[in-house]
Design a protein that fits this description.
Blueprint (H helix, E strand, L loop, with lengths): L12 H20 L2 H17 L9 H20 L16 H19 L2 H11 L5 H8 L3 H19 L9
Helix pairs in contact: 1-2, 1-3, 2-3, 3-6, 4-7, 5-6, 5-7, 6-7
Length: about 170
């Protein structure tokens, strides 16, 4: 058994995974855009925390896990230098126009999300999906709180453009 915090009783791997596994996986899925890759990132993050010789603080373990996922994703992204293609969602034959419009808009937003640089993508997902404040985002992404605000703002602007069907260009 690995002690995650010397001031707290020993915590099992299962307890840590049960407490944070879903959020870490969801974050990895949004970053990677692929379920299998998200599972690999999640497993690797938990393995690294568990195998680490230095004990992690239980109260900051979630941020630590998310930072590991983000770093693993960025490392892989830099190696590959290509974006993960999203699969096409087939529309049922009896869909109404509204459903088709919604699916098209959703595809545009997801494509826009994949076009963001990894730090912007991580920042906007941590803010929107995980509800983190800018200071926690900054710690997770190893940037300043001001930079975290700017990354989230720019990512949101780009996603709004993508939603409207405009190409996402980096103006900055």
């Amino acid at each position: 058994m690995h002690n995650l915090d010397v001031s707290l009783p020993a915590v099992t791997f299962h307890e840590v995974y049960e407490a944070h596994g879903r959020e870490v996986y969801r974050f990895a899925l949004y970053l990677a855009g692929d379920a299998a890759r998200a599972e690999d990132l999640t497993a690797e993050a938990f393995l690294r925390v568990w195998a680490s010789p230095a004990p992690a603080q239980l109260k900051t373990i979630k941020s630590y896990l998310l930072a590991i996922v983000r770093n693993l994703y960025v490392q892989a992204w830099r190696r590959e230098r290509r974006e993960t293609a999203l699969t096409e969602v087939p529309a049922p034959a009896d869909c109404r126009d509204e459903v088709l419009d919604y699916e098209a808009e959703l595809r545009r937003v997801l494509d826009g999300l994949q076009q963001l640089d990894p730090v912007e993508r991580a920042a906007v997902l941590l803010r929107g999906e995980n509800g983190m404040d800018y200071e926690e985002i900054a710690r997770t992404l190893e940037i300043t709180p001001v930079a975290a605000r700017v990354k989230v703002h720019r990512a949101r602007l780009k996603l709004m453009q993508a939603r409207k069907g405009k190409l996402v260009h980096d103006r900055y």
